[in-house]
Amino acid sequence: MKVLNFRSLIIFSAFLRVFLIVYGEWQDAHLEVRYTDIDYLVFSDAAALVVAGKSPYKRSTYRYSPLIAFLLAPNSFIHRSWGKFIFSVSDLLVGYFIRTILKLRGVPENLSIYSVIVWLFNPFTFTIGTRGNCEPIVCAIILWIIICLMRGNLFQGAVWYGLVVHMRIYPIIYALPIVILHDPLHFQHGKKPSIIEWSSRDVKPGASLGPDKSSNLNRLWVLFSSIFTRSRILFGLISATIFFFFTGLFFYLYEWEFLNEALLYHLTRTDPRHNFSVYFYHIYLNYEREFSILEKLISFLPQLMVQVVLVSRFARDLPFCFFVQTVAFVAFNKIQATVRMGKLHFKILQFFCMEVGDYCSILCVVLLSVAIDITMEQNEA
């Protein structure tokens, strides 16, 4: 009965998304304010250029991996809403992956179902995919990576991690906790890592993330071998191979235009509009003058420091660590912190709230998501 209930939730939420996509087509045709996200128009134009054998970067403001343009190529010869269906299916996968992760962590079935409901039927989430933003794909891949790591599937997790970093560069922030997770006592070959039942609240002050280094004579060797473990080297090599394969392939096809627009641009980007960033006012007042490369890069320093501190404390509780990392990333980001970026940390927020087993926590998740949705949509208006 519980499985049927879950299936009915997925089916009903799928019909909801189909309805919104159809309604969006009507609103775009009849009302002045469009339902479709402006980014979707950019994706569609880039996809049309790819179908015509041209570079997607001929479309101004397209600053994503060409994979997204190739994925939306059927927009040109099947239907212009093809991409919205792809993004909405990814959104449904996020709901399914949330339930899977919570089950692996021992959360009761009823709380897992409530968590899925909070995701699938929240206006904050289902409008993003149906309006045509690609963020649901990134969310789904990140959750699948967590599932792979929880099941001990290092190879598949590494492949998908390399792919998602290529698609959207910001998941690179999750590399450090994943590396720490592959501790020789924590992630052993052929066995599921203890992340399944791990809680950061169980860590005692001064607890080590590595093996006991009691022997003074072997201290250096033990330190070296604990850092460069088989699983860490394999994960790094596999994910780097996937990342550089796609990066090299598209560099071969589109040369420096791809590298500048899809990767390097995000390192030096400044945005004086639609901004919740802590750097907003400084950028707004000084936007007319050209910022130096040093000024643009130094803004990453506070973010880097916060990320290192958070990872060193919460790395073994991977979903929670991803959550606090994402919150810090959004808070200290120098470019716009919009509803799309907020979606990622809302997704991971549900994991540890549902583990508390407190219905008040579930209500807080719902209220928080509504508050984020209202404030960020006002910011984008």
Automatic annotation (TrEMBL):
Cellular component per GO, a single term: endoplasmic reticulum membrane
GO biological process entries: GPI anchor biosynthetic process
Pathway involvement of the protein, from the record: Glycolipid biosynthesis; glycosylphosphatidylinositol-anchor biosynthesis
Membrane topology: Multi-pass membrane protein
Compartments in which it is found: Endoplasmic reticulum membrane
Domain of life: Eukaryota
Pfam families named in the record: Mannosyl_trans
EC annotation from Swiss-Prot or TrEMBL: 2.4.1.-
Keyword match Glycosyltransferase: yes
Keywords (A to Z) from UniProt: Endoplasmic reticulum, Glycosyltransferase, GPI-anchor biosynthesis, Membrane, Transferase, Transmembrane, Transmembrane helix
GO MF term set: alpha-1,4-mannosyltransferase activity; GPI mannosyltransferase activity
Transmembrane segments: 82-99, 111-130, 137-154, 233-254, 356-376
Major localization listed first in the record, in broad terms: endoplasmic reticulum
Known function: Catalytic subunit of the glycosylphosphatidylinositol-mannosyltransferase I complex which catalyzes the transfer of the first mannose, via an alpha-1,4 bond from a dolichol-phosphate-mannose (Dol-P-Man) to the glucosaminyl acyl phosphatidylinositol (GlcN-(acyl)PI) intermediate to generate alpha-D-Man-(1->4)-alpha-D-GlcN-(1->6)-(1-radyl,2-acyl-sn-glycero-3-phospho)-2-acyl-inositol and participates in the sixth step of the glycosylphosphatidylinositol-anchor biosynthesis.
UniProt similarity note: Belongs to the PIGM family.
Protein name: GPI mannosyltransferase 1
